[in-house]
Design a protein that fits this description.
Oligomer: single chain
Largest sheet: 8 strands, mixed
Number of domains: 2
Bound molecules: pyridoxal-5'-phosphate
CATH architecture of the largest domain: 3-Layer(aba) Sandwich
Strand content: 5-15%
Helix content: 40-55%
Number of helices: 15
Strand order of the largest sheet: 2-9-8-7-6-3-4-5
CATH class of the largest domain: Alpha Beta
Length: 404
């Protein structure tokens, strides 16, 4: 009898990641990529990391063993210390857990909060990896539009009311990227942070504050975390992926110990524990002060690239063809091409030898949206961290040709 896989309902509902699919199209020699949100491998602290491997001689028996699902305790202690300032208070170890990337934090949270059909409030635009994970759990999305100051929080109440009217239930979660958002590069203003914390608390809806880019500020003043403004109900997440190296796959979450405990139980069934080798290396890396000296280096390195991209775009793009935001940190320029479908521009750009990500990847589809849908087809995300300075200049000229 022919083999037939009896796929689960959730497997049948899965959609391939639009970004991963596009990557297949841009693997051509000579292609300049502003597409992936990748750190620059030139700035990876390879020597320092190799020096930390020395610690395995003493810690090898721990590092090579299974570890606690909550995380390697010395690394948790380091994070407790580092996070006290941005989180506005001393946090306790039971409020912290380590995860295999912040992607896993979203997955754990989906498993403990989301039943198929439940609604998650997201920004429009938002990080497609989050949409992918939430979608796998059967979530639908209520969208809050964004502008240069992040989520338009003044629309949140009406989005919540629409959700209640259309589904009979409140959303299970509000997902937000408050600093240098992927993709928009925007930071939520302090006033909006305050208002968001207030509205979420008033309705009793938990918030995932996803902050992998917060430490990558190149200009301006740091803004207070949502966590520091809210009494409870905010799960803060960050990661070593952008500030150190994504290959480590180490991230952390800080929140209500009750929720953290549930997530730990979910994680036990996912991967038992995050790679202990990676956690030991990162813990050693932080203990030796390498992270503190690395951060100013990458900030300067990426600030120069952001400035190079800004200069190149101003110089090359035909006047009136595009508008974009000049980000104060993070990885991305968010561009609007009025009257254009950026999926079509993408094809022309790839022919010219430059790639970016079309905006529609950052918005849920109409059939999974509760309430008003937001069309992202005239937007494009350009990552400035991965390409070299020279490639940024040449890529911008190629982009201009594809718009001409
Ligand atoms: C906003 C946001 N959250 C989470 C992630 C996933 O990060 P990690 O490598 O920690 O899984 C990314 C990666 O690009 C991101 O941009």
């Amino acid at each position: 009898m022919a083999l037939q896989y009896g796929y689960s309902r959730s497997a049948l509902a899965m959609r391939p990641s639009p970004i991963r699919e596009l990557f297949k199209l841009i693997q051509k020699p000579g292609m300049i990529s502003f597409a992936g949100g990748l750190p620059d491998p030139e700035i990876f602290p390879v020597q320092e990391f190799a020096a930390c491997a020395e610690a395995l001689r003493g810690l090898g028996r721990v590092a090579l063993q299974y570890g606690a699902t909550e995380g390697y305790r010395p690394l948790v202690d380091t994070l407790v210390e580092r996070m006290a300032l941005p989180l506005g208070r001393a946090v306790r170890p039971e409020e912290v857990m380590i995860a295999s990337g912040s992607q896993q934090i979203m997955d754990m949270l989906s498993r403990v909060l989301v039943d198929p059909g439940d609604v998650i409030v997201v920004e429009a635009p938002t990080y497609p990896g989050a949409l992918h994970t939430f979608r796998n759990a059967g979530a639908r999305f209520a969208l809050v539009p964004c502008d240069g100051d992040g989520m338009q929080v003044d629309q949140l109440e009406s989005v919540l009311a629409t959700c209640l009217r259309e589904t009979g239930r409140a959303p299970k979660l509000i997902y937000t990227i408050i600093n240098f958002s992927n993709p928009s590069g925007a930071c939520l203003s302090t006033e909006r942070r305050r208002r968001l914390a207030r509205i979420a608390a008033h309705h009793g809806i938990p918030v995932l504050e996803d902050d992998p880019y917060g430490e990558l500020r190149y200009r301006g003043e740091a803004l207070p975390t949502l966590f520091s403004m809210a009494g409870e109900g905010v799960l803060f997440a960050s990661s070593f992926s952008k500030i150190l190296a994504p290959g480590t796959r180490v991230a952390w979450a800080v929140g209500d110990p009750e929720l953290i405990r549930k997530m730990v139980i979910a994680k036990q069934g996912m991967d038992l524990c995050t790679s202990v080798v990676a956690q030991v290396l990162i813990s050693e890396y932080c203990r030796r002060g390498f992270l503190d000296s690395h951060l100013p280096k990458i900030r300067a390195h990426y600030a120069a690239k952001a400035a190079a991209m800004s200069r190149a775009l101003w110089q090359d793009l035909p006047q009136g063809a595009a508008t974009w935001t000049d980000p104060e940190g993070g990885f991305f320029f968010w561009m609007r091409l009025p009257g254009q479908d950026t999926a079509e521009v993408f094809t022309r750009a790839v022919d010219q030898g430059v790639a970016f990500l079309p905006g529609s990847a950052f918005f849920p589809e109409p059939d999974e949206t509760v309430g008003p849908w937001v069309d992202g087809s005239s937007f494009a995300r350009l990552c400035f961290t991965f390409a070299t300075g020279e490639e940024i200049g040449e890529g911008s000229r190629r982009l201009a040709r594809s718009l001409a």
